[in-house]
Amino acid sequence: MRPRGFTLVELLVALSVMALLAILGWRGLDGMVRTRQFTQSQADATLTLQAGLSQWRTDLDAMVVLPHIQPLDWDGQAMRITRRGAAAVASASAPVVVVAWARRDGQWLRWQSAPVASRADWQDAWQRAALWSRNPGVQDLGAQTALLPLAYWQVFYFRGETWTNPLSSDDSAAASRAVARNAAQQQATQQSTGSTDTQLQTATLNAALPDGVRLVLQLPEGSAFAGTLVQDWARPTVGGGKL
Hints:
By secondary structure, this protein is of the alpha+beta class. It contains 5 helices and 9 strands; from the N terminus they run αββββααβββααββ.
């Protein structure tokens, strides 16, 4: 008896089954690849967000108060901070840097100046930071870092047991009261200990600073994270569990 081979119908059926299995296998593999890519993008976005918030806190923690130099300013567009350099020690003679945070072109951005060692250099860096937030030059674009997509952001100060808008009259009044209280204390201290004018100026600037800073980020729809994120920071010298 001659051996019997496959008929054409059987061959077509076998090929159809193999093609179906191949399609199912490809879809499964494609789903795994897409899932892996999504998971990796979410992990990258999480790390980027964490790095940005960590840098924000680090800049505020490293803020310095020096005579005749403004340590902190929020103008509704940018947050400017005078802080110690990464390798600087906490002394009046150590170089400092000016950093600025702003939202521009749908991105949360950070800018940092070169180290400054004189008041004139600081003034130039302070003004450049304000200009960078609105109309940056080519040189300033090279000194900025884009952190993450951002739809909107706002900053609030903690003074007098409440959060206020730094640009509001309530915050200005609270800051004025704090400075007045400090001036009275420093005047008494100067009379008893002979404090210098430089020490009094530093104390006045320190009193004008808020006890805490609240950062509110509105992350856009369609990004890895969407919605409102709130980050509170308290001055290291402030205690009592206010925040």
